[in-house]
Design brief:
Number of helices of chain B: 9
Shape of chain B: globular
Number of strands of chain A: 9
Structural class of chain A: mainly beta
Order of helices and strands of chain A: EHEHEEEEEEE
CATH topology of chain B: Rossmann fold
Number of strands of chain B: 7
Structural class of chain B: alpha/beta
Strand order of the largest sheet of chain B: 3-2-1-4-5-7-6
Oligomer: heterodimer
CATH class of chain B: Alpha Beta
Helix content of chain A: 10-25%
Radius of gyration of chain A: 14 Å
Strand content of chain A: over 45%
Helix content of chain B: 40-55%
Bound molecules: zinc ion
Shape of chain A: globular
Radius of gyration of chain B: 17 Å
Strand order of the largest sheet of chain A: 1-7-8-9-2-3
Strand content of chain B: 15-25%
Amino acid sequence: MQLIDKTIVQNYIDSFANKEIFIHLETTNGAYASHKDESFLNAGAFIRNAKIRFSLGKITGEGPYRIGLKLDSGWVYGEGLTHFERDEKGRLLMAGLNSKGQLAIALELSETPFD
Amino acid sequence: MEKERHVLVVFPHPDDEAFGVSGTIAYHVQKGTPVTYACLTLGEMGRNLGNPPFATRESLATIRKKELMASAKALGIQDLRMLGFRDKTIEFEDEKTLTDLIYKMILELNPSLVITFYPGYSVHPDHDATGRAVVSAVGRLPKELRPKLYCVAFSNNCEKELGSPDVIIDVSAFAEQKLATIRAHKTQTALFYDEFSKKLNKKDPDAFKWLHYERFWSYKWTD
Ligand SMILES: [Zn+2]
C-alpha cells in the first residue's frame, strides 16, 4: 500500500460505480485497548462481502481522507483513510494506518468476493 | 518436570504460542515429546500492517501463515494444524462444533498435557472462546482419564480471582528459542520486540523474569 493520491483513488472509485460489488469495511481500536486502559471503551465493527451498488462515490479531505458512497437506498461512510493499493485482482484496498502502522479502518471494494 | 506422552497446544492466533508458552514447548520438544499445535485462525484481522505498510488487510493471512510455520520450525513442532477459522469470529461459531473438533484431536493424540487460554481471564474474545471449547472437550472425558490442563491467563483481574499461577516452569535454557519464535512473527511482534530488547539491555528484572519463567494455572474443575 502507498499513501493515498486523491486523484488516482477517485478514478478507481469511479470505476466501481453502478455495478454490484463486494465491500469489506472495518474499524478497530485493537483488541487490547481496554485491557491497557480500563476506562477505554473498545468499539469496532466489520462487515465482509456485503453486496452494494453505488451511484456516486467521493474521496474528500486533505488527508487523512474520508470516503462516501451513495447507495440506491443508503450510504457507506469511512474516515481516517491514509493508504491504498489496487491489487493484482483489481480490488481497491484502502486503509487508515496510525504512525505505528496499525490499522484503524479498512475500506475495500471488489468485483469478486473476498476470500 | 516429568516427561509428557504428548502435548497438545490450542490457541486461536499465530503468535499466541510465542509469548507465554514457547519456552515450555521447546522444553518438551527437547525431551522428545511430540507436540501438536492447533491454531484456529491465521490472525487475518491483525492490526499491524507496518509503517510503511508491508501488507494489506487481504495479504496479511498469507504473511502470518508463513510466520506461523517459521515459528513452529524454530520450536521444533512437528505437527502444526491450521484449523481455518477466521480471526475475531471464534466466539460466534457453534460451540459444539468447536468442542467436537478439539475432542476428536484429544482422542486421536491422547495427550498427557493440554495447553490453552483460561476462559474468562484471557482478554481477547477469541482466547476466551478457544479456552472454553478446550475445557468442554477435556471435560467430556471421565475425570480420571483427563490430561493435565494448563491455562495461560493475563487479564488484569486474573491473579486476584484465580490466585497465583500454580505451575511455574523455568525455561531459561530455552530463552534464545523463545526470542527466535517471537521474531518469527515479525510483522506482529516488531514493536514489542524493540521495546523488550531495550529492557533486556537495561537488565530489567521483570523482562528477564518474563523471558525465563512461564506461568500457568491448572484448570479448576468443578466436578
Ligand atoms: Zn491471540
